[in-house]
Amino acid sequence: RPAVGYPSIPDQTMNFVLHDMLRTDEIGISLTENGMMNPPASVSGFIFAHPQSKYFVIGPVSEEQLHDYALRRNT
Fold first, then answer.
1. What is the dihedral of CA 18, 22, 25, 27, to 10 degrees?
2. 36: in domain
3. Where does the pLDDT of residue 1 fall: very low under 50, low under 70, confident under 90, or very high at 90 and above?
4. H, E, C per residue of the chain
5. Residue 35, domain extent
6. Each residue of 3-61: pLDDT tens digit?
7. Is residue 42 part of a domain?
8. pTM recorded for the entire structure
9. How far apart are CA 63 and CA 46, in angstroms?
């Protein structure tokens, strides 16, 4: 259960993608300008149900990787 904002998915802006896709405003969840969820007890993540699924942590990211990621996310 990789959760947004934690080591496996450190980019908290992924909450905007989930918010738009799942229309979380319909159940009373809103996002701050940086992607934090309100009410504060709200959680988000990706659930993978497969016997070979593994939890992992993204290690240090180089400037080159950060630039590549930003290009892919159009930011």
1. -120
2. yes
3. low
4. CCEECCCCECCCCHHHHHHHHHCHHHHCCEECCCCCEECCCCCCECCCCCCCCCCCCCCCCCHHHHHHHHHHHCC
5. 1-46+57-75
6. 888 877 888 889 999 999 999 999 999 999 988 999 999 988 888 889 998 877 778 88
7. yes
8. 0.65
9. 26
